[in-house]
Amino acid sequence: MRRLLRNIGWLLSGRAVNAVLSLVYLALATRTLGIEAFGYFALIIALGQTVTGLANFQTWQFVVRWGSEPQGAGEATGFAIALDFLSVIIGSVIAAALVWSAQHWLPLPHDLLWVAFGYCIVSLLAMRSTPTGLLRLRFQFGRATAAEAVQPVVRAAGAILAALFMPTVLGFILAWAAAEVAVALALWAAAAWREKIDFSQISLWRIPREHPGAWRFVWSTNMSGSLSVGGKQVMILLVGAIGGEAFAGGFRVASQLGQALVQLAQTVSKAIYPELVHAQDEAHDMARRMANMALVGGALAVLVALIFGRWGLEAIAGPEFGVVYWAMVILAVAGAIELVGASLESLLVSAGRAGTAFLVRAVPTVLALLLLEKAMGWNGLKGAAMTVLGSSALAVIGFWVAIISLQQIKITVERKNDGIG
């Protein structure tokens, strides 16, 4: 538990740097571009992150899961790198299809379509899940935090340069693309410093041959990651498709500020997953304590959003973004719920129940996307935020029910074994 809290501390310090610098580049982008052009920018970023999220195989989980076994991290890393190559191929096809069709369903000007496609390709090439997994496998959270800090620093510097010399959507997209490349290079350098990368081990077949359930785990975590993207980036794209670029820009700002807790939830999940894998006997107790701490932290964060949210929105993004205050508060509540559920979801995945975690996440996410148009017709951006809140609440309840069921199955098996003995 002490090591877990120390690792969370490292990750939170990185999030703190990211949070401060994100306010800088968010303020520069919104005030330089205005709500409509910022909407175009938000749609392009969402396209890139959607493509990456759909194609990414969450390889850090494979490195942690199989790299801790006696044969070492070589084969697990080789499998992860092979999956990264596969992700780039699949992602490029998805990017081409989305950008080609964007003119029919997204409010993006024609001259920005190639910008969007270029950003998608850069995002795919800059995927960094595998080196992140290597660092987490060795509990090198401090080194990982230092490498990840490159992204917000480069992004903030790029935003300043864009505001001064290229105050256009293209200028800010170039800044974001440069940050993606820089952080990927930094993480690979940090991982290679600690662990020699053996490229002769790259293979899609070795790990599945030794672990018959490997591909099921691969696709389950990939689909879970895709659903996580669906709850955020696809939501921004659909909000833009339904309401226009101004709605997309407003929802992006509300989401970035209101759902900072979702980022914190991902931080907790990333820190606790290796610990749950290594300490199966104490996993339930560890997850329960983390969920209790998350409940307190989430409640405090929602209170801060209620009291200071409107002032923060207008101070950072400008007065025209003050209209998204209630959407931001609703998304903050959703983030608090996700924060509580982070350790529960990690517990399911670490217990080999990635498929269960996927199904529990899938139904609420799909339901939210299906209800989005009606929700926006009912209450605009607040309605869109309510679909996110409902999805998060249903998913966390589902994780809790699934864990209780697993515990009951475990108790029943133990009693039967005792009876046989």
UniProtKB/TrEMBL annotation:
The chain crosses the membrane at residues 12-31, 37-57, 78-100, 112-128, 149-167, 293-311, 323-342, 354-372, 384-406. It is found in: Cell membrane. It is a multi-pass membrane protein. GO terms for cellular component: plasma membrane. The keyword Ion transport does not apply. InterPro entries: Poly_Biosynth_Transport, Polysacc_synth. It comes from Pelagerythrobacter marensis. The keyword Membrane applies. This is Polysaccharide biosynthesis protein. Keywords: Cell membrane, Membrane, Transmembrane, Transmembrane helix.
